[in-house]
Amino acid sequence: MSTPVPSVLPRARATVEAAGGVFDHVERTGSTNADLLAAAPGRAHGSVVATFDQTAGRGRLDRSWSAPAGQTLAVSLLLRADLDDRDRGWLPLVAGTAMRDAVSAVLADVDEAGRASRPEADASSPAEPRVLVKWPNDVLVDGRKVCGILCQVAADGSVVVGAGVNLTIPADALPTPTSTSLAVAGARDDAVTLADAVLADWSAAVLEAVRALVAGGPGAGAVRSRVRAACGTIGRRVRLELPDGTVDVVDATGIDDDGRITIRDRDGRSRGVAVGDLTHLRYA
User: Fold this and answer.
1) What pLDDT score was predicted for residue 57?
2) Sign (positive/negative) of CA torsion 155, 156, 158, 164?
3) Partner of 48 at 20 to 30 A CA spacing, among 27, 96, 190, 283?
4) Which pLDDT does position 126 carry in this prediction?
5) CA 73/CA 147 separation, integer angstroms
6) Confidence at residue 1, expressed as pLDDT on a 0 to 100 scale
7) The CATH number of domain 234-283 is 2.30.30.100
8) Which regions of the chain are under pLDDT 50?
């Protein structure tokens, strides 16, 4: 891993170090998750690896994730906490909710008139928050993906939470028709300023939520309630694709205590789904 660069991401660095973690900014790497998984045995809870140039990132279900250098943030956060298997299942959702809040803060001052002028704004659609989590861990702005999250378990049992955030990619260079960036959504700051704000808020919020899950009781319940409230998938009709290739159109009805999305099929049968791809179709 490269030598840390103290002048980059100062607010994020201060946040991580105040929590007892080590902050590494690397100029270029294949994968921040791979770097932190390898370094995990010697790193403290709350440590971070971040870069603006990741060349071999991975997403859920082992999909590749690539992004233009300098216009995206790839970051990985180490969690070393006494969580049971059920609570570990909530980590992607917790991380997605924390990123939803961080992105919302960055976009809070964006002119709503500018939003209304963009093609994705639809005055006939039901009112909803501009930034949502799509189960289990995509963050959407105006219905388009701005961030994806991947959780992996290290050899020592700790968990690495990786996130990729589209910062300043212009509209004509976005990787897919269903993606967006903070700049396309109206943010006017440069990539470093945006990354510093998002990373500082995101890492602090994830660590706070993990502390609450470890403590249990009302605090843990509040974390789960917040996740459910942030999840824009609940209440929608969705296209569900399962790992075996099965595809169905179902209604998403909630998130159960194991972090699974609960769905109701066209025959009225309900069940929980732990792994699958969802596409939002419309409100149920």
Assistant:
1) 61
2) negative
3) 190
4) 52
5) 9
6) 45
7) yes
8) 1-6, 61, 111, 113, 115-119, 121-125, 283-284
Q: Three-state SS across the chain?
A: CCCCCCCCCHHHHHHHHHCCCCEEECCCECCHHHHHHHHHHHCCCCCEEEECCECCEECHHHCEECCCCCCEEEEEEEECCCCCHHHHHCHHHHHHHHHHHHHHHHHCCCCHHHHHCCCCCCCCCCCCCCEEEECCCEEEECCEEEEEEEEEECCCCCEEEEEEEECCCCHHHCCCCCECCCCCCCCCCCHHHHHHHHHHHHHHHHHHHHHHHHHCHHHHHHHHHHHHHHECCCCEEEEEECCCCCEEEEEEEEECCCCCEEEECCCCCEEEECCCEEEEEEEC
pLDDT value at position 101? 98
Q: Is the dihedral of CA 187, 189, 191, 192 positive or negative?
A: negative
Please give the Cα distance from 70 to 220 (Å, whole number): 37
Query: In the chain, what are the domain boundaries?
Result: 10-226, 234-283
Residue-level pLDDT at 215: 96
The torsion angles phi and psi of 207, rounded to 5 degrees, stand at: -65, -40
10-226: which CATH architecture? 2-Layer Sandwich (3.30)
- Cβ atoms of 24 and 50 within 8 Å: the answer is yes
Taking the C-alpha atoms of residue 96 and residue 133, their distance in angstroms, rounded to an integer, is 6
CA gap 284, 280 in Å, rounded = 10
pLDDT of residue 68: 80
What local confidence, expressed as pLDDT, does residue 116 receive? 45
Q: What is the pLDDT of residue 56?
A: 80
Cα distances (angstroms) measured from residue 204 to each of 47, 77, 155: 11, 10, 24
- Find tokens 């300098």 and name the residue: 70
Report the C-alpha dihedral over residues 135, 139, 140, 144, rounded to 10 degrees.
Answer: -90
